[in-house]
Amino acid sequence: MPSFKLLILQIGTILIVARLVGWLFGKFHQPRVVGEMVAGILLGPSLLGWLAPELSATLFPPPRFSRRKVLDI
Predict the structure, then answer these.
(1) How crowded is residue 47: how many other Cβ atoms within 10 Å of its Cβ?
(2) Distances (CA, A) of 26 to 21, 33, 34, 53, 61
(3) 22-46 burial by CB neighbour count: b if 16+ within 10 A, else e?
(4) How many angstroms from the chain centroid is the CA of residue 2?
(5) Which one of 10, 16, 18, 70 is CB 3.0 to 4.6 Å from 36, fit for a cystine?
(6) How confident is the model at residue 12 (pLDDT cuts 50, 70, 90)?
(7) Cβ distance 13 to 59 under 8 Å?
């Protein structure tokens, strides 16, 4: 998958899940920002990577470059 399409898919997924979980928290009279943080946990390796590692690796692949190479240290 080309990197631009993957980037758009990643951003869209993050925004949709964050909005949905934030809305759900709002229905329970909780701050929406807490729901958005929970959405980040749901999409992260602690839950999505555990439940569906193939989907997690496809949607959020590991970086190709080490930080050291990117920063040119």
Answers:
(1) 13
(2) 9, 9, 9, 29, 31
(3) beebeeeeeebeebbebbeeebeee
(4) 18
(5) 18
(6) very high
(7) yes
